[in-house]
Structures are given as C-alpha cells and as structure tokens.
Amino acid sequence: MKRTLYTFFAIGLPLLFMFSLQVPAIAAPAVQQTYQPTPTPGPDGRIIYIVQANDSPWLIAAKFNLDYNELLTLNGWGPNEVLQPGQEVLLGFGGPAEPTQPPAADFPTAQATATEIKGPGTARVCILLYDDANGDALRQDSENGIGDGAVSLSERTGLFSESNPTESGLDEDGLPIYVCYDDLPQGEYNISVAVPEGYNPTTSMDLTFPLRAGDDTTLNFGAQLSAQAAAANLPVEEGGRSPLMGALGIALLLIGIGIGVFSTRMGRK
Fold it and tell me: Of 93, 124, 159, which one is at a domain's C-terminal end?
C-alpha cells in the first residue's frame, strides 16, 4: 500500500500536472446569425421575395433581418397569415433598377395613359356615387355624381379610417367630382357607400379589396331615383298641374256663366 501511494505521488502527480499545462481548454464556438441576401429591387423599386415551401411570416422576417410587424403591415397580413409557395412577398423598397426604356426619340407619338406611381408606401383611391339613370349598373359619360350621399373608407387593421359626403355637379374640367383619398398606407380596405333619400342602389354599396403601394384606384357606385321620387320631379307637361292653367280655367268658367246670364235676360225681353 505504501509503495502504491509512493508511486502515485512520485510519477502520477507530475504527469497529471504536465498534461494539464499542455492541453488548453477548448472554447465553444460563438453562435452567429446569418441572414439571407435581400433580393434586388424591381423597376418600380419594390423588393419582392417568392415564398418557398414551409415559409412563414416569422421565418421570412428572420431570413432577411426584418421587423416582423413591419412585414405584416407592408403585405396587409394578419397575425395568423398562411403563405403559399410561389406567393409574392413585399420586403420593402429600394432604388429602382437601371432604366430599360429606349431613348426619347424612339417613343411612339401616341401612348396609352399609365397609372401614376406615387411615393413608396402610399396609394390613392377615388370614389364616385353616380346617378345611374338607365339602371344598367354601368356609368356612362352623361351620368354625373349624386350629392348628399356618404363614402366611408377604412383599413382592416385600423391604419386608416375616414368618411366624406358625396357631391353632385362637375369640376372645372367638366368632370364629375370624386371623393379622393391620398397617401394611403398599404393594406386591405373596406369601402361603404350610403345613398341619399329618394335613391335606390343599382350596384353593391360595400367592397373589400387589397391596396398596394403605388396603386391609383378609381371606383364607381351607382344609384337610381326611386319611382316615387321620379314622379315628384316630373315636369308640368308630363302630368303635373300648373297654377296658371288652373286660373285660366276658372276665368273661362266665369265668362261662360256671365254669357249664360246675359243670354237669359235678353230672352226675357
């Protein structure tokens, strides 16, 4: 026993001490977060990502080091949004790509009217409540606005909400007066239109639709005068009674009575 202890202290302890000096402790590698490169902005400045299998809003935000709530707002998503492979996701806005248009001299002389692209993150909506005189639910150029109605526009998550009255008549360019909303944030919107008394709707008065940054949307809602209101507005020659004609009739009746009395007196003489 004494020999075993002596051997341990004489040989084992020095070897253990030397080994501890020669073998340094191995530190655990630091955990690093790697982010996926952001896609190149398109010609309109939008940065688009295509959804892959098993993607979710949380995973996409983590891939590109984005704020989760900002990603939801940009795409008009709710907290439980389910994504489908191939779906486009707006990550944000960057500088537009290099222009690919031909020189000005190569443009055709006649061009189609293009939708105006507004500033990043905003959109525009214009709404008209028009007098659908023929009741076909399609607005003709001769069918102008109806006043005393109301238009309400609201974003589903509460980013925007406003109501305004509708107007009749024409603007300085001879066009109907639309109710317009500028600088709207991207999202899912609901429109509700109320018709004034005496009118019946000829189109749906409620609409829900997505609005993306840069959109410039025009919407028409139709209404037609009710039969009772139309009859009340008929001109005199179409069935109304004229006070002047009534007075003339009374005058002719009195003249007839006078002539009758005069004839009776002459006959007695």
Answer: 93
Q: Give domain status of residue 8, yes or no.
A: no
The two three-digit tokens of residue 5, written as one number: 């202890």
193 CB-near residues (< 8 Å, 6+ apart)? 127, 129, 149, 150, 151, 152, 166, 205, 206, 221
* Domain region containing 162: 116-229
Query: Which residue from 178, 124, 172 is spatially nearest to 146, judged by alpha carbons?
Result: 178
Of 219, 199, 215, 243, the closest CA to residue 139 belongs to 219
Instruction: State residue 100's pLDDT score.
Output: 45
For residues 64 and 38, is the Cβ–Cβ distance under 8 A? yes
Same-domain check for residues 75 and 133 = no
Domain with residue 188: its CATH number is 2.60.40.10
| Alpha carbons 93 and 76: distance in angstroms, whole number | 16
Q: Tell me: do 127 and 169 sit in the same domain.
A: yes
Same domain, 79 and 139: no
At residue 29, does pLDDT exceed 80?
A: no
Kindly report, residue by residue over 107-163, the tens digit of the pLDDT: 333 333 333 434 456 899 999 999 999 988 889 889 999 999 999 999 998 889 999
* Long-range pairs for 81-85: beta carbons < 8 A, 24 or more residues apart: 81/57, 83/51, 83/55, 83/56, 83/57, 84/51, 85/51, 85/52, 85/53, 85/55
Which of 68, 109, 90, 84 has the alpha carbon at shortest distance from 215? 90
